[in-house]
Amino acid sequence: MALEFYKILQSHAQSQPNHPAVIDGADTLTYAQLLDQVERFAGALETLNLDADSKLGLLCLNQKEYLIAFLAALLKGLPVVPYNFMLTPEDQVYVTQDAGVDVLVINPAFIKPETSRFFSIFKQRIVTTEFPRGLLPEDGTQLFDPFLKSGNPQAARQRHERSEDIPDVIMYTSGTTARPKGVMLDESMFYANTTGVQEHLQFSAEDRAIMALPLFHSFGNMISLVFLRSGGTIILLPQFHPKTILATIVEQRATVLPLVPTIYSFLVQLAESERYDTSSLKYCISGGAALPHALLNKVETVLGTTILEGYGLTEASPVVAVNTMVDGSVPGSVGPPLPNITLKIVDDRGDPVTEGAVGEIWIQAETVMRGYWKLAQETRDTVTADGWLKTGDLGHIDEKGRLYISAGRKKDMIIRAGENVSPLAIENVLINHPAILEAAAIGVPHDRLGEQVVACVSLKQAGTLAENKLKEYCRGKLPAFMLPDHFRFYETLPKNPVGKILKNQLREEFNPDSGKSTIVVPHPKTV
Predict the structure, then answer these.
(1) 3 state SS of 389
(2) Are 392 and 327 in contact (CB under 8 A)?
């Protein structure tokens, strides 16, 4: 019962009670107000009919109610399950039943006639604002504000008695290849991770972060917690909208902007065509996918700031490495590991490789997950008996101890005619083409070669781009065995809620079992 983040809120509420903690549209919560509302919500949880297996689900946009409920649940000791609102209805039901969620905080945007049956699963529903009546059961449904006001702050620290094997938080993976997996994490892991991140990034109470990353995602979760720890201000945006992000930077004089590479692509494209005063930005932070060198340079030039790339995964709470404020951006590197993380690069047998050699990244730290919820075999496959987390990512470490994600995901590696083809190397070349906005290289089945290389791209402007010219562009920049066999053009590439390109979805188009052809048919725009 460490109550790490509750103690942090108490400290800030005492030292800077009127300093803004959260800005949500027209609403601002100071640290004193945030502490009060967290205590009241935690106290109100005492009024619900909870049992040892109860869990609190959060199906929200980026909004203050999410943060209040999340922090209150940590204080109370009630396990939290953040919902990825981009999951299919079937997966939402699966997560609910798999985790055993019986209390749900929900934004009315998700209450629709076709989803009303889903909400009847829960014993209690707390709706963040007014909602259409008749779509939810009257019994067990209440509004957030009255529920909050009913809470007795004195009851906030009366801990919820739960089963010992249940973690503080279960964060479900996106489930692109199978059912979502629940990653079991504890508040102590988040605290340890923010300790390491803060040492590298050194945020202060004067910093103001744009939070367009979904709070339910591990990246957004970490940034929000590290900002609360530093006493800074979180500016919530409900979605990735480049124009809104840029306008908010100007209006709020934001100092920190965390995003994923694909969103930075759209952002700088807009910032080039329209003038925005982004001079308040100290740093941009990039994670979730590899940041191409050309895009890094573009962001720094157009926005006039430094971009720090990092690397992590939900199973590590999530940050493993990030470039430091002192060193600034290092093209191609995700920076040194956090000070409280041990990292090694291993071969297929699990033996350490020589310095500079590429292998799978393994980590050992107090931030490594307990395991996957109710998936013992998957846990054993991912975490070794002596506590090493197998990340599935391929990288190397340079002579200064900085980590590089050299070839992307191990499972994404393309084996073409016996040669290992790095999709990341191809993508870094393609993204430098002046007409290309996004690129993803995938392997597709081929009778003779085993796999062929297909480059999936979207263009900055509607128009045409000749496949043979793209091949010629790649020739000389890539080894012959890495040259894409085919190009496929898209208006936009499929992405998850934080903007990471979904390669599994692209590969599915060429899966013989899907009923779709494995033959690449050029996009109509191709000439």
Answers:
(1) strand
(2) no
**What is the mean pLDDT, run by run of 10 residues, along the chain of 527 residues?**
90 98 98 98 95 97 98 97 89 94 97 88 96 88 96 89 94 74 97 97 97 95 97 95 96 96 90 94 91 89 96 96 94 95 95 93 98 96 96 93 85 79 88 90 85 91 80 88 91 84 86 43 33
Q: With CA atoms as reference, report the closest residue to 523 among 439, 467, 453, 440.
A: 467
Which stretches does DSSP call E strand in 273-358?
283-286, 306-312, 319-322, 333-335, 341-346
CATH label, 21-166, candidates 3.40.50.1000, 3.40.50.720, 3.30.950.10, 3.40.50.980: 3.40.50.980
- Round to whole Å and give the CA distance between 180 and 191: 25
User: pLDDT at position 319, please?
Assistant: 98
pLDDT for 476 equals 79
188-409 CATH pick, 2.30.29.30, 3.10.350.10, 3.40.50.12780, 3.40.30.10: 3.40.50.12780
Per 3-state DSSP, the chain is made up of helix, strand and coil in percentages (nearest 5) of: 35, 25, 40
Side chain identity, residue 86: M
Which regions of the chain carry the CATH code 3.30.300.30?
A: 413-514
Query: Which fold is adopted by the domain 413-514?
Result: GMP Synthetase; Chain A, domain 3 (3.30.300)
Q: How far apart are CA 327 and CA 402, in angstroms?
A: 11
Contact 372, 379 (CB under 8 A): yes
8 A C-beta contact, residue 186 and residue 506: no
CA distance 221 to 66: 11
- Predicted pLDDT at 513: 52
Contacts 24+ apart (CB under 8 A), 109-118: 109/61, 110/59, 110/85, 111/135, 111/136, 114/89, 115/89, 118/89, 118/92, 118/93
State how far the Cα of 277 lies from the Cα of 282, in Å rounded to an integer: 13
* Dist CA 142 CA 124 (whole Å): 8
